[in-house]
Amino acid sequence: MFVLTSILFGASALGIIFLVLLHSGKGGGLSDMFGGGIGAQTAGSTVVEQNLDRITIVT
């Protein structure tokens, strides 16, 4: 039971870290590598960025 709990905790921690790194900050961040920074510069906040915000808040 302890091993299962540890695995779930580690997986959720890595998932949250990944979601935070996908957010575009002042410099674009990791999301800029996947083209997320281009839409954010032209149209403000993109649908992808809004969905990332929602997912991060829920987790």
What's a quick, concise take on this entry?
This protein has 59 residues and is mostly helical. The protein is 69% helix and 0% strand.
Describe this structure in words.
The chain is an all-alpha fold and 59 residues long. The chain has one domain. Helices cover 69% and strands 0% of the residues. It is built from 3 helices and no strands. It has helices spanning 2-22, 36-43, 47-58. It is elongated. Keywords: Membrane, Protein transport, Translocation, Transmembrane, Transmembrane helix, Transport. It is a multi-pass membrane protein. InterPro entries: SecG. One of its GO terms (molecular function) is protein-transporting ATPase activity. Belongs to the SecG family.
List the helices and strands and how they pair.
Elements: H1 2-22, H2 36-43, H3 47-58
* Low confidence ranges: none
The number of helical runs is 3
Record field, number of beta strands? 0
The count of domains is 1
Order of helices and strands: HHH
Derived from helix and strand composition plus strand pairing, the structural class reads mainly alpha
Choose one word for the global shape: elongated
Approximate helicity band:
55-70%
Radius of gyration: 14 Å
| Strand residue percentage | under 5%
Distance between the termini: 23 Å
**Mean residue pLDDT:** 75
